[in-house]
Design a protein that fits this description.
Layout (H helix, E strand, L loop, with lengths): L2 H13 L9 H82 L1
Protein name: Somatoliberin
Organism: Sapajus apella
Family: Belongs to the glucagon family.
Length: about 110
């Protein structure tokens, strides 16, 4: 008989229910309640992880929105300052033209 057949027979006989009695009911109930607790605990941890991930994603999106708003505000301020400079230059050129016209009229 080959060695692997002998080992297989020994393992089969040793794992049968005739060799080892079932654990007592109290031990089986404790294991069962431990398994239920562990399973429930893992579910809660999974939900907490998913909630934290969702909050992180939402915070990132909110941060990106704030950055976009900030960029728009900066752009608006830049446009306003360019507009104010152009308006100032236009007013100065009008004032210079009026002074020149007034000087010519007095001569």
């Amino acid at each position: 008989m080959p060695l692997w057949v002998f080992v297989f027979v020994i393992l089969t006989l040793s794992s049968s229910s005739h060799c080892f009695p079932h654990p007592p009911l109290a031990l089986r109930m404790r294991r069962y309640t431990d398994a239920i607790f562990t399973n429930s605990y893992r579910k809660v941890l999974g939900q907490m992880s998913a909630r934290k991930l969702l909050q992180d994603i939402m915070n990132r999106q909110q941060g990106e929105r704030n950055q976009e708003r900030g960029a728009r505000a900066r752009l608006g301020r830049q446009v306003d300052s360019v507009w104010a400079e152009q308006k100032q230059m236009a007013l100065e050129s009008i004032l210079v033209a009026l002074r020149q016209k007034h000087s010519r009229n007095q001569e």
